[in-house]
Amino acid sequence: MIAKTGRRSLLTYLLAAAACAGTVSTALAHPHVWATVRSEVVFGPDNRIIGIRHAWTFDEFYTAMAVQGLDTDGDGTYSKEELQPLAQVNVESLQEFEFFTFVRFGDDGKKLPLKPPVDYWVDYDKSVLTLHFTLPLETPIDPNGKEVVFDVYDPSYFVAFGFATEAPVKMSGTAAPGCGVEVKQPDAETQAEAKALTEAFFSELGPESYIGSQFAQTVIVKCATP
Prior knowledge:
226 residues; alpha+beta; 6-stranded mixed sheet; 4-stranded antiparallel sheet; 5 helices; 33% strand; globular
């Protein structure tokens, strides 16, 4: 897939490949891309959750490929303006994959619909790229007395997302007193199983397997009832 700017976005290519992972060479093992996640739970002035703000830092291999040809003025640096086309094409490609962000609320655990991303950009620092964007909820939710849960994962596990060790999730905006967040890790046995899976295993999976959900970390937002 070619970006509208005429440049190839490696992430766009990889995300497209994730949808048909059986065509990927078995010489490569899942996952193929790594991203460190930092997120914010965004509250509105009425204490309702209105969105999720992400910062995804990609591995050096992806970064090296993605920035090729983007230093248009040849000064050896990558400005926000030079990186904006990359941000746009990557955000557009993520829509097909539900932005790898799955928010659930209520006893039925039903996924909440998200609006298209806003305030997106890419920055480059010390050989890695970070994609920033905000996903507004279609309908703000009141978390008082009920848990809000969200995961960040690629269902095909082509891209491995993991929350940062330090300050992985925080709250921004106007949260009610008594609100807090925690990151729940998958159990150790599941993580060990993930490392043992072969590329042949992934090539047999269908597009609706959602195998990546088994290895996902889960963010839990709790707000005590006043």
